[in-house]
Amino acid sequence: MRAAGQMSAATATRPRRIEAAPFRQLLVRKGLPYALIAPALLVILGVLGYPLAMLVWLSTQHYGLRELFQHQGRFAGLSNYATILADPQFRYALEVTAIFTLVNVALSMIIATFIALLMERVSSFVRVLLGAGLVFVWATPVIPSIDLWQWMFDYEFGVVNWLLTRIGAGNYIHHNWFENPLQGFTVITVVVVWGAIPFLALMLHAGLTQVPRELVEAAQIDGARGWQVFQNVTFPTLKPLLLILLSLSTIWDFQVFNQVWVMLDQRPSQDYFVMSVFSFQESFRVSQYGLGSTAAVIMVAILAIASFFYVRQTVRSIEEFGR
Amino acid sequence: MNPRKLLFTAMGVAVALLVAACGSTTTASNPADQTGTLTVWLMNGSAPQSVVDGVNADFKAKYPNVTVNVEIQQWSDVTTKLDTAFAGSAPPDVMELGNTLVAKYAAAGALNDITSQKAGFENSGTWLQSLTDSCTYQGKLYCVPYYAGSRAIIYRKDMFDAAGVSVPTSMDELLSAGQKLMSKYGSNPNFSALYFPGKYWYAAAPFVWDFGGDIATQSGGKWTGALNSSASQQGLTELKTIVSQLSRADKTGDELKQDQAFAQGHIAMIIANGWEVGVITDPKSGDPSLASKLGAFPIPSHVAGQTAPVFLGGSDLGIAANSKHQDLAREWVKLLGGTKFQSQMVTVGGVIPNTTSLVSLSSGLPAIFAAAAKTSRFTPNSPNWANVESANVLQNMLVSIFTGKSSIADATSAASDKITQILNG
Prior knowledge:
The structure holds two protein chains of two kinds. Chain A is mainly α. Chain A has helices at 2-58, 65-70, 79-85, 88-121, 124-139, 142-152, 159-166, 181-208, 213-221, 226-254, 258-263, 275-285, 289-321, and strands at residues 61-62, 74-75. Chain B folds into two domains: 33-149 and 313-372, D-Maltodextrin-Binding Protein, domain 2 (3-Layer(aba) Sandwich); 151-311 and 391-424, D-Maltodextrin-Binding Protein, domain 2 (3-Layer(aba) Sandwich), CATH 3.40.190. In chain B, strands 2-1-3-14-6-15 form a six-stranded mixed sheet, sandwiched between helices. The A-B interface holds A 64-66, 68-71, 155-156, 173-174, 176, 178-179, 265-267, 269-270, 281, 284-287 and B 76-77, 79-80, 83, 86-87, 104-105, 107-110, 189-190, 199, 248, 250-254, 256, 261, 387, 390-392, 395-396, 399, 403, 422.
């Protein structure tokens, strides 16, 4: 009887709960993730969103030294954009940066893939040695390592000039590597690629260990040779990872700054103005913070495109493997 | 007297009393009771440590409870640091500013206007004219002259003797003396008769000025770049001949390491500031044994017997408009800019003092540099000049000329346009 009574009581309340439940469930189901993500979102907005909004705001201002000291800019609309897009120096920077990024991404990805494939095949002792070497390169702080490279390519005392002369590659005594921008950018490319390889190679090596052994063996039994195995088995498996690394490399190489700035003693000639250097020069050397910000906003916009592929690939990977 | 007038008079009296009261408390307050921290930025290589210590000791004697922090800054990145500091709420109270930088900061409102206190500074009546000019913006005084420096040629007397050349008295003689030195020592691939790094603008300017050229001219408030004038180009052509024949320095390098290079012993001449003698003979960074072998002479003019005009470099001492210790800052500046420590700057530091009344204290090599400063010139006194320096316009022009990347006509006309644009910006 008591049970029946409870039952009836429960039955009596049911209609109301049926009304409330979907809403509450909906709220919990839809709202909880947002509530949980809110703190992280707030931090990201504060750390990334606010500076970015400030940057965009600054790019619409006439903001020189006087304005900086008084914390009060003058609204200039889109005139900064018009000025900068008409500036031949900016167009040069844009072109140079695009070519530089293309070459550096290609070189670092190809060399890193070779190293990763090599690590697959060598004995575990050599693999550990190679891995340790890569980690050491990666762990070297950027500025000291650029200083070291600078010393090696020094005009007067550089070991590279000495060595090239010594092995009979020509007369490199007092050879200036930065007189001709093409040579200078080659040296900078060496430094950038050298610094980029460890991360890429280690990531790709980790990716390679995920290639199913049995697929490779099956392909080999079917008569596939080394390149065919790579093309038909290894590459498709690695593709998502390769795409992510490609986007990341593009972002890093596009905004390269330290290697140019430190290598050229903080006074690069205009031949070496990549986008980031151009932006820094306008802002902090010529005190045209509005123009500098405009250049930076354009950089961010271009990088957003590279990031789009990265994000899309990440989302796809989650959809594929996340379920 | 009607009530309204009475009220105004009363208010006026009250304000006057208040001002007087405030004024009297400041002057009457005991220096020993003043507390706080005074931050001073000096540049690397400007004042010898003993002079800084002396100033601080005298300051401490008067204000025992005030702490003075003297921080040494590097020339290469000082403008970025100054911009950041002035934009913040607590800039240094006193800062040394290169004389070409003052106009920029004065125009931006970063420096305290000290026009009314000028008489309170020792020797202010005999300050060097060109330094006082660099401190003056739109008729107001924004800093105190600190010291001046001019460039001359430092040479190795022993090498001159061995090559049988004497001190040149014209640019032609400079070239022929250098050629003799090159034929005597040139088999050493590192030897330079005159070591001239490609970006060394301040050593190139005398050649431009000597032929009657200039960096920019002003008329009716508008600047016009003048490096493409035929006189300027003539000077740069002369310089290019000298550099290509006598220098094996990096054509894209700057002058920051020229003293260390000179101290290594395979250079016969450099164009340098007086204080660089100290760097060359410094036991740590240089070679003390060179001291007796060094001589100096002013950069000769293309007109025999005359000397070329040189850039009068130097520094001034500014007080931040936002400083919370204006009075203390002025007291500190008065010490370093006053007779006692300026005399030490001459005798210990080897620089040209901020007042003509002390120039005679210099002797030996520094006296030659002080004499070279008699025909001196200054860069365009515009708040935008610092941007020409920051944008490396002149350095890039010189590099293009020396490396042969562009002709003198093309390089000077590009630089001139850029200078016109920046100065009028």
